[in-house]
């Protein structure tokens, strides 16, 4: 995960994946329930935690390429 965002269902998603999902659906991929709001919010804390984990575990996971 390189660009985590939070959706109205409270779950974190990779931005590009949830944007593709929301382009054709208005439900949560996790719960199946209708999302009243489809706005996505950056998850700065999760992004920092992912970066810190990668720095602590070099070579374990390749950094994703930017789309």
UniProtKB/TrEMBL annotation:
Domain of life: Eukaryota
Signal sequence coordinates: none
Pfam families in UniProt: U-box
Domain U-box: 1-60
GO biological process terms on file: protein ubiquitination
InterPro entries in the record: Ubox_domain, WD-SAM-U-box, Znf_RING/FYVE/PHD
Name listed for the protein in its UniProt record: U-box domain-containing protein
